[in-house]
């Protein structure tokens, strides 16, 4: 009889870790200490990573398989300033703006968790203005390519026809993300200034920052693939 009870206790001890997990889930307890909104943002960014990865992989395939000469980025994306032909100057400024906006966004998150509403709002507005500047410069870049250079999604007088389709699709998709981010930042900054969130609710700023840092990181890859290759 004593042996049977001893074997039963051993079986209970072996199954206790799994039973604990089952009990936690069945009792509707949190298994991971992460806000629901933050988890959903990570899932969204993961899906977006797959999309951008497919776009950039397709671009590499098209670039390497094109039979016509691929346009030289230093020539295509150059500007003439004060009589000097400067390659990639606009792209360098756009990249600097996005990197700076990552810094202002990081500071906004830091001030949010300190409970400093004023500085949080100022830095989020600054980040949104930098993002809007980036979109404006991208619109200028598109206008220059379309009007002055004659580049179209279906044609390109400077070389391979695939250049226009790949460029407008990928940079346009990223520009759409930046534009959405500017609106997102503006809305959250306005809600914070109106006192819609208390100190405990400021994790929304971190969630916004995750999106913005992702947009900035994607641009680094686009910059390397389109403008440096």
Structural account:
- This protein is mainly alpha-helical.
- The protein has a single domain (about 35-229), classed as Up-down Bundle (Four Helix Bundle (Hemerythrin (Met), subunit A)).
- It contains seven helices and two strands, in the order αααββαααα.
- It has helices spanning about 1-25, 35-65, 75, 90-115, 115-150, 160-195, 205-229, and strands spanning about 80, 85.
- β1 (about 80) and β2 form a beta hairpin.
Task: Give the secondary structure arrangement, pairings included.
Blueprint: H1 2-26, H2 36-65, H3 73-76, E1 78-81, E2 84-87, H4 89-114, H5 117-148, H6 162-193, H7 203-228
Antiparallel strand pairs: 1-2
Helix pairs in contact: 2-6, 2-7, 4-5, 4-7, 5-6, 6-7
Strand tally: 2
* Count of domains: 1
Whole-number average pLDDT? 84
Compute the separation of the termini in Å. 78 Å
- Find the CATH superfamily: Cytochrome c oxidase, subunit III, four-helix bundle
What Rg, in angstroms, do the CA atoms define? 25 Å
CATH topology: Four Helix Bundle (Hemerythrin (Met), subunit A)
CATH architecture designation? Up-down Bundle
Q: Give the neighbour order of strands across the main sheet.
A: 1-2
Number of helices: 7
Most strands sheet? 2 strands, antiparallel
Question: Which CATH class applies here?
Answer: Mainly Alpha
Uncertain runs: none
Q: Per DSSP, what share of the residues sits in E-state strands of 2 or more residues?
A: under 5%
Order of helices and strands: HHHEEHHHH
Work out the helicity level. Answer: over 70%
The dominant shape is globular
Structural class of the helices, strands and pairings? mainly alpha
């Amino acid at each position: 009889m004593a042996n049977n009870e001893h074997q039963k206790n051993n079986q209970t001890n072996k199954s206790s870790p799994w039973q604990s997990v089952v009990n936690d889930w069945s009792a509707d307890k949190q298994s991971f200490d992460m806000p629901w909104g933050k988890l959903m943002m990570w899932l969204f960014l993961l899906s977006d990573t797959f999309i951008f990865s497919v776009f950039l992989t397709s671009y590499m395939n098209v670039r390497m398989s094109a039979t016509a000469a691929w346009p030289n980025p230093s020539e295509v994306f150059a500007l003439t300033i004060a009589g000097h032909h400067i390659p990639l100057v606009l792209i360098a400024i756009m990249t600097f703006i996005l990197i700076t906006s990552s810094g202002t966004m990081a500071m906004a998150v830091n001030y949010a968790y300190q409970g400093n509403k004023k500085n949080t709002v100022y830095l989020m507005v600054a980040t949104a203005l930098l993002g809007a500047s980036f979109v404006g410069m991208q619109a200028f870049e598109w206008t220059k390519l379309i009007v002055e250079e004659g580049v179209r999604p279906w044609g390109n007088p400077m070389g391979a026809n695939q250049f226009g389709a790949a460029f407008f699709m990928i940079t346009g998709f990223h520009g759409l993300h930046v534009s959405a981010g500017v609106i997102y930042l503006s809305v959250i900054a306005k809600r914070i200034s109106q006192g819609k969130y208390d100190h405990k609710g400021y994790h929304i700023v971190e969630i916004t920052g995750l999106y913005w840092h992702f947009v900035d990181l994607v641009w680094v890859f686009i910059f390397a693939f389109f403008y440096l290759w």
